[in-house]
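Cross-check.
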Amino acid sequence: MEVRVRYWRRMAHSMIEDVYMPIAPETSDGKWPSTRNVANALEAAEWNLPSSRKVAIICLILTETGLFSIFVAGYVFYLGKSLTGPTPHDVLELPILSTICLLSSSITIVLAERAFNRDRVGLFKLFWFATIVLAGLFLTMTGAEWRTLIYQKGLRISTNLFGTTFYSLVGLHASHVIVGMCLLLLVLIFSLRGFVTIMHRERLKMISWYWHFVDAVWIVVFTVVYVIGR
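Predicted model, tokenized:
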């Protein structure tokens, strides 16, 4: 019986060492630290969970990346398989100006974010507004392009495989630009009314991440549709 008691005592002591030694070793005099010290060590060693907003936006970006990949793959797969015209070479022109506007908006939103972090509210509003204007110009020029394609060049979504895949892919991207522009407008309205403070810094960063994603997707769309596809 005494042997069993000693055995279980040794087991209990070993378990305590396994739990506490990595975070609260013995003191110089060989004694175990106090309960308060152990609690402090546990609190210091506690793993901090990542921001829920960052996790959410990363998951959203990964999901949207998969969605765009499907549409891009579909466009490439059906490229050149239309039985009737018009073809991409016949009707598409390089949207250089709209591309410059959209990619420039990534620069202005970065400048807006830096101004906000430095507590330069006026400069933040200016660059944020510039981002919205550039996004609006991109959508306006995309709409003008579609109007020309539909009414002057006869390319509709039901014309052929090229029309279906073109409007699906470019339209999907345009819808994401519209969503991002709505978020930008909401932030601008709230900032003009004084509701945006330093406490919203992370939320602004998440919106900028989404906007950079939209711009990056356009680089892929531009390359596949207007460069390779033509």
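Helices lie at 2-20, 35-45, 52-78, 88-91, 96-117, 121-152, 161-192, 201-228. Residues 82 and 161 are 5 Å apart (CA to CA). Passed to J.P. for a second look.
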